């Protein structure tokens, strides 16, 4: 067992998200109050022993294992972190939850809604803490946006509008990866990028979509190594929400001039809010005067600011992983719940149900209703 104020962690994946989650854990002693347990980086899983050893050494984990079941069986580990590809989220996370480990899993929760539901069900009935890594919830400016929206300051919410635009599919040297494989990923731009904004719509408005109309397209059908691309690289959808709002969500991997653009706007009857990840320390807010003003979300009372540095020092995208790490560890220690700030596996399942409905709507060329299952029926 890890020491009394320590939580032992086992993690799947050591590439993009494995590195981001490791950085998040390493910040915990620097930014979290003492009551938050300190993470101990016990065990890292990867398939290739040589690459795993190099990653283990670089990222600072105690041991590497080439079978994730060794993490599930390891008594020193209380938190199972799944930062692997989507298809690998399901069986290991369910096994870990059933073994009594708290579970923290990357988004989308599973490649399909059925997978995500099975994960929520297992975590719920195992009684462990569960969090899906929708890290955009941990931008201070979006937490402020949520507060403003939910306070009623911008009135009745009428529109949610978002765009997540990258150009990675246009890279001529692109090799086929798990992201291009329908079974391994579930969806493309929709599940990878759109998923964040679908989750944020629920987070910001505290509302769920009830219907969807969508279009998905595969613009680039083959990678440079000849591998077939099976997942969408263009996605657009219209949603009706149960608060009466109309949602427009767009995502693309073929937006030629964009590295990573993530923009969100919410309009209410008395005002509007605008956020762009390129200016992530700012929130733009307009009231009845129709004049947008820019709030620097770096004041001492803004979320997380006092944990870091004196007010006014900007945070970055990577800091969301540190905020997430503090949040899940604090939830395990009973300092607060995962919800509503963190996405639970219920939230992860809801997003996956919405993604599946959008895929259905796109393939039928029709508007479809979205219904959600419950683990307690
Ligand atoms: N929260 C975010 O902002 C964000 C950003 C990117 C990715 N993600 C999510 O994080 C997860 C991981 O994505 P990533 O970008 O780190 O992927 P990645 O491709 O960078 O890394 C995946 C890792 O898993 C390994 N891997 C691939 N297939 C495997 C298999 N079948 N069995 C075991 N290992 C395998 C790869 O070797 C690699 O080390 C995905 O669920 C993705 O959707 C989230």
What does this structure look like?
There is one protein chain. The protein is built from eleven helices and 15 strands. The protein starts with 5 loop residues before the first strand and ends in an 8-residue tail after the last strand. The strands form two sheets. Strands 14-13-12-11-7-10-9-8-15 form a nine-stranded mixed sheet. Strands 3-2-1-4-5-6 form a six-stranded parallel sheet, sandwiched between helices. The model has no long low-confidence stretch (mean pLDDT 97). A hairpin with a 4-residue loop joins strand 9 (234-241) and strand 10. It is 33% helix and 23% strand. Nicotinamide-adenine-dinucleotide binds at residues 13-17, 47, 83-86, 88, 106-107, 133, 135, 177-178, 192.
């Amino acid at each position: 067992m890890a020491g009394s104020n320590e939580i032992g962690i086992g993690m799947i994946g050591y590439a993009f998200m494995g590195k981001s989650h490791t950085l998040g854990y390493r910040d915990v002693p620097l930014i979290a109050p003492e009551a938050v347990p300190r993470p101990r980086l016990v065990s890292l899983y990867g398939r290739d022993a040589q690459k795993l050893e190099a990653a283990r050494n670089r990222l600072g984990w105690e041991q590497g294992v080439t079978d994730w079941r060794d993490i599930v069986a390891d008594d020193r580990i209380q938190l199972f972190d799944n930062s692997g590809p989507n298809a690998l989220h399901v069986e290991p996370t369910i096994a870990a939850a059933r073994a009594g480990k708290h579970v923290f899993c990357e988004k989308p929760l599973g490649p399909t809604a059925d997978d995500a539901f099975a994960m929520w069900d297992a975590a719920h009935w195992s009684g462990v803490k569960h969090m899906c890594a929708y890290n955009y919830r941990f931008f201070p400016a979006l937490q402020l946006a949520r507060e403003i929206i939910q306070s009623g300051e911008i009135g009745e919410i009428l529109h949610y509008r978002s765009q997540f635009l990258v150009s990675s599919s246009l890279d001529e040297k692109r090799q086929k990866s798990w992201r291009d494989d329908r079974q391994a990923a579930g969806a493309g731009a929709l599940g990878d990028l759109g998923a964040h904004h679908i989750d944020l719509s629920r987070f910001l408005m505290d509302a769920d979509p009830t219907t969807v109309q969508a279009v998905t397209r595969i613009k680039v059908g083959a990678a440079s190594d000849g591998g077939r691309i099976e997942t969408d690289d263009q996605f657009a959808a219209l949603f009706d929400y149960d608060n009466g709002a109309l949602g427009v969500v767009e995502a693309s991997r073929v937006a030629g001039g964009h590295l990573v653009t993530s923009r969100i706007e919410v309009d209410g009857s008395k005002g509007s809010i605008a956020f762009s990840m390129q200016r992530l320390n700012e929130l733009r807010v307009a009231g009845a005067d129709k004049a947008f003003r820019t709030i620097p979300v770096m004041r001492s009372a803004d979320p997380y600011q006092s944990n870091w540095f004196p007010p006014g020092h900007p945070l970055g995208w990577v800091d969301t992983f540190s905020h997430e790490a503090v949040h899940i560890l604090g939830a395990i220690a009973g300092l607060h719940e995962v919800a509503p700030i963190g996405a639970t596996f219920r939230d992860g399942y809801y997003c996956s149900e919405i993604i599946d409905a959008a895929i259905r709507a796109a393939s039928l060329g029709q508007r479809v209703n979205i219904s959600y299952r419950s683990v307690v029926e």
